[in-house]
Amino acid sequence: MKALTYHGPGRRTWGDVPDPVVVDPEDAVVRVDAVTICGTDLHILKGDVPEVAEGRVLGHEAVGTVVETGDGVRTVAVGDRVLVSCISACGRCAYCRRGMYGQCTGGGGWVLGHLVDGTQAEYVRTPFADNSLHRLPEGVADETALVFADILPTAFEVGVRNGRVGPGDTVAVVGAGPIGLAAIATARLYGPRRIIAVDLAADRLKAARRAGADEVLRGDGDTGASVRALGPDGMGVDVAIEAVGVPDTFELCTRVVRPGGRVANVGVHGKPAVLHLEDLWIKDVTITTGLVDTGSTPLLLDLLAAERLDVDGLVTHRFGLDEMQEAYDVFADAADTGALKVALFRT
């Protein structure tokens, strides 16, 4: 089969690799019908994730059809149309029993495209299929379902839930890429008073408006003062969600949050950021980090089916599966191409 493989920082290849097979009784093999590229894949290609071995098939998000299952698989069957979750969960370890699937110590967690071969291929072996594949509702298009593999649960769990967004809150989302837009869309479920989006790109700020942001600010000049002024009494926001993964945006979040507020870091950081405890220690600020667990995926799919969650516009560019290299170039050059989320389809 064809797949996208990693060969060290800055080097990737689309070419032939062996077809995946069932290895463990709880495995399933899925034919990939639609797949996407994540910002984390770009971090891998920059060398920010050294655990990824040379030759690894990248990717951890897909929609597909089950073509083979191990003897231990019970909840999905050959022919089922499924969402391939970015997180695999053994379901038995102490972390899984607490619903912390991202921290699974039984062979799961974020493994696809990281520690085992991933989804940017014609077929993928998915460990712990009963816990890691979701049968899709009838009528949900592949493109729509695709964003529920990672960015929707990530933004919701690590940003909105960790940030404890509540009715009447003022929320700043720093970064209006796919994760930031998903954070805006899911934060609206909790009835905040105001959502403020911050980004450098005019196109992404327009997308933030469409996703439901009440205010948009270009992230240059004295952005911190501008965001703080939009909070209650001009003292800052209740929740600041970091959705980029660079030091400047994290530090901006810590500057705009009000006393007693929350900073929820979602971005994947490849460099250290400064934590100004000399300013924060007295403000009762809570800072959270996290890897998505995907425990919310069934809920989010239900909200989609009930038409309570609008994800239109997150996918901006579409390709055939064999156009993987071009799709990577377009996604990596988002400042010029305007790419938010790219989708690649089996043709």
From TrEMBL:
Needed cofactors: Zn(2+)
InterPro entries listed in its UniProt record: ADH-like_C (IPR013149), ADH-like_N (IPR013154), ADH_Zn_CS (IPR002328), ER (IPR020843), GroES-like_sf (IPR011032), NAD(P)-bd_dom_sf (IPR036291)
Family named by the database record: Belongs to the zinc-containing alcohol dehydrogenase family.
Name of this chain's protein: Alcohol dehydrogenase
KW Transport (keyword) present: no
Lineage top rank: taxon: Bacteria
Gene3D superfamilies the UniProt entry points to: Medium-chain alcohol dehydrogenases, catalytic domain, NAD(P)-binding Rossmann-like Domain
Pfam families linked: ADH_N, ADH_zinc_N
Keyword tags: Metal-binding, Oxidoreductase, Zinc
Ranges of residues in domain Enoyl reductase (ER): 10-344
Entry-linked SUPFAM superfamilies: GroES-like, NAD(P)-binding Rossmann-fold domains
GO molecular function annotation: oxidoreductase activity; zinc ion binding
